[in-house]
């Protein structure tokens, strides 16, 4: 197995290591992933997160299992368990299905083909991020201030990220001057992870609480909103971290362009529209308080009722443009997303 190195995932000397994102930015702790059930726990617990990265990580975990000589039956059962570790990001299912296809018809298990497919998924994700950034940067003016939500960066992909990839390359070219980062309640992927990435890249940024976005946009300081996606339906509706839909409504009201950045692995042609996207519901504890190291600081009464969807769905009509690796789709100009995508991929 080849060595593969990214910001949050490493396949090195035959070992698979993940950066435990729950501990950022306090500590950079790498965890060795020894089996598929551990990878499922790492993904469910958000140690490994972000739509493209969970697909890549799942693929590499399955490749290790195949290479280790697991029986074909047990390998397929592990693949089915991993496939449903999180329900919303379709990249996970796309990656696992690609490996199942590479494995061949049961009872066959083509171990070399599985390893090759997993490593190709890693390489392709790096390239997809760069292609998204190229298309996205071309849309930016000079010295823009961008508002982003959650973390769609190098921590969420094998490459430079999707939304943050555009921001990173845009900054290098003088097109991005400043980034506002939504803290992203309840698990603070913006405040903890995106701010960490931007600091490391030397990109000026300011963290805001999610409920400040309206006032921030009203102040006229945001030129553009750029976010990632976990699943894009066939009609262009976009599932992303909860709070994204609110930002899209605000952007529409304030006439601020709203961009969604994603690789083709995030598009789900089998899902006709946003109503068909399964939205993950997470534990009440995430909202009732916060984990501080090994302790939980609870600010609500323990049995307080909680609604905690991890994602929401933004209708395509609120998206100014979807920046994919193959090009830029504008719902207002070309309403037929699938038709556009087919042409775009064939170019
Ligand atoms: O729950 P998370 O942290 O996995 O959610 C991540 C997001 O919503 C990201 O915006 C999305 O996966 C795109 S990452 C390139």
* CATH fold description of the largest domain: Rossmann fold
Q: Per the principal axes of the C-alpha atoms, what is the gross shape?
A: globular
Total of helices: 11
The beta-strand count equals 17
Average of the residue pLDDT scores: 97
Instruction: Report the helical percentage.
Output: 25-40%
Distance between the termini: 33 Å
The CATH homologous superfamily of the largest domain corresponds to Translation initiation factor eif-2b, domain 2
Whole-angstrom Rg: 20 Å
Q: What share of residues are in beta strands?
A: 15-25%
> Which stretches of 5+ consecutive residues score pLDDT under 50?
none
CATH hierarchy class name of the largest domain: Alpha Beta
By oligomeric state, this entry counts as single chain
Class based on secondary structure composition and strand pairing:
alpha/beta
Structure notes:
This protein is an alpha/beta fold and 347 residues long. The chain has two domains: 126 residues, Four Helix Bundle (Hemerythrin (Met), subunit A) (Up-down Bundle); 207 residues, Rossmann fold, CATH 3.40.50.10470. 38% of the residues lie in helices and 19% in strands. The strands form four sheets. It has a seven-stranded mixed sheet, with helices on both faces. Helix 3 packs antiparallel against helix 4 and helix 5 packs across helix 6. The longest helix has 27 residues. The mean pLDDT is 97. The chain binds 5-S-methyl-1-O-phosphono-5-thio-D-ribulose. The site of 5-S-methyl-1-O-phosphono-5-thio-D-ribulose (MRU) has 19 residues, from helix 2 and strand 10.
């Amino acid at each position: 197995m080849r060595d593969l190195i990214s910001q949050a995932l490493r396949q090195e000397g035959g070992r698979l290591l993940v950066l435990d994102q729950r501990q950022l930015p306090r500590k950079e702790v790498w965890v060795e992933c020894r089996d598929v059930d551990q990878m499922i726990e790492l993904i469910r617990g958000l140690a490994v997160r972000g739509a493209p990265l969970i697909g890549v990580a799942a693929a590499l975990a399955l490749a290790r299992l195949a290479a280790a000589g697991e029986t074909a039956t047990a390998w397929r059962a592990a693949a089915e368990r991993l496939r449903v570790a999180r329900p919303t990001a379709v990249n996970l299912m796309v990656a696992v299905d690609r490996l199942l296809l590479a494995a061949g018809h049961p009872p066959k298990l083509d171990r070399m083909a599985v390893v090759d497919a997993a490593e190709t998924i890693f390489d392709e994700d790096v390239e997809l991020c760069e292609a998204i950034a190229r298309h996205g940067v071309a849309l930016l003016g000079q010295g823009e201030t961008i508002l982003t939500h959650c973390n769609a960066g190098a921590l969420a992909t094998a490459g430079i990220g999707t939304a943050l990839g555009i921001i990173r390359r845009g900054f290098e070219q003088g097109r991005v001057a400043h980034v506002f980062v939504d803290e992203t309640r309840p698990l603070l992927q913006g405040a903890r992870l995106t701010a960490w990435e931007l600091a490391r890249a030397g990109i000026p940024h300011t963290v805001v609480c999610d409920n400040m976005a309206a006032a921030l946009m009203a102040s006229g300081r945001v030129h553009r909103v750029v976010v990632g996606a976990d699943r894009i339906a066939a009609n262009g509706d976009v599932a992303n971290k909860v709070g994204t839909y609110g930002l899209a409504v605000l952007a529409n009201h304030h006439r601020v362009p709203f961009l969604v950045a994603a690789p083709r692995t995030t598009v789900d042609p089998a899902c006709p529209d946003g109503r068909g996207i399964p939205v993950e519901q997470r534990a009440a504890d995430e909202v009732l308080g916060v984990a501080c190291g090994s302790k939980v600081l609870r600010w609500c009464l323990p049995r307080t009722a909680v609604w905690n969807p991890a994602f929401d769905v933004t209708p395509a009509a609120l998206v100014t443009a979807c920046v994919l690796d193959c090009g830029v789709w504008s719902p207002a100009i070309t309403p037929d997303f699938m038709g556009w995508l087919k042409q775009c991929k064939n170019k």
